[in-house]
Structures are given as structure tokens and as C-alpha cells.
Design a protein that fits this description.
By secondary structure, the protein is mainly α. It contains four helices and two strands. The longest helix is centred in the N-terminal third of the chain and has 26 residues, at 3-28.
């Protein structure tokens, strides 16, 4: 396995371990509300998430490609984390689009930015 691939695998495994632990805690204490999950998100997990994104997907409404975001990856991630920690980051709502299928039913596609 390539060194870069192994690094991404380890980073992803770390994030999945954190998310699994959060899911376990939520099951153990179903009445407890999760106020924030920012403690589970750090630079490493955001970089890992960016690295596993497919580069051939369509850009969002902000028209920023994975490659463009990656040109200033450290700066972008630092800014994003700072906004998330001070609760200034407000994700745009997802837009649900219904796409007709051959059988007459509809399926949904979501664009996370309007």
C-alpha cells in the first residue's frame, strides 16, 4: 500500500473511531441531547475528509472545486475550524431536487448549497 494511501486510511480510521464512539454514547444515553460535535472535528479529520473527496464531482453553488480549495487547504481549514468553534459557521441549507426515474417514481438529489 502506498504511503499516502496508508496515511489517508489511518486518518479516516481515526475519524470513524470518533464517530463510532459518539454513536455509542448516543445509544447509551438516548435522552441526552448532543449540543456540539466540534470536539470530534480537528484539522486532521478535515484534511482526511478533503483527501477522500472525489475530484471529478460537480462543484457546489460557491463554484469552488476540490483542487481550488486544496490550493490553500491549510488556510481554508484553519478558517473553517475557527468559525465552527466560535459558532460563526452557518452551513447553507440543502436543496432537494426530485429526479424522475424510468419506473415513474422519483429519487432525490441534494445540493448542499443553494
Amino acid at each position: 500500500m502506498k504511503r499516502e494511501t496508508m496515511l489517508h486510511w489511518r486518518q479516516r480510521e481515526t475519524l470513524e473511531t470518533k464517530l463510532t464512539r459518539i454513536a455509542e454514547l448516543a445509544k447509551q444515553r438516548p435522552r441526552v441531547k448532543l449540543q456540539t460535535l466540534i470536539h470530534a472535528i480537528d484539522e486532521e479529520s478535515l484534511k482526511a475528509a478533503h483527501s477522500v473527496l472525489s475530484a471529478n464531482k460537480a462543484v457546489g453553488v460557491d463554484a469552488v472545486t476540490k483542487e481550488e480549495y486544496g490550493e490553500k487547504l491549510q488556510e481554508n481549514i484553519t478558517d473553517l475550524l475557527e468559525r465552527m468553534k466560535r459558532q460563526a459557521y452557518k452551513p447553507q441549507p440543502a436543496k432537494r431536487v426530485y429526479i424522475p426515474k424510468v419506473d415513474g417514481k422519483k429519487t432525490t438529489a441534494r445540493n448542499t448549497r443553494l
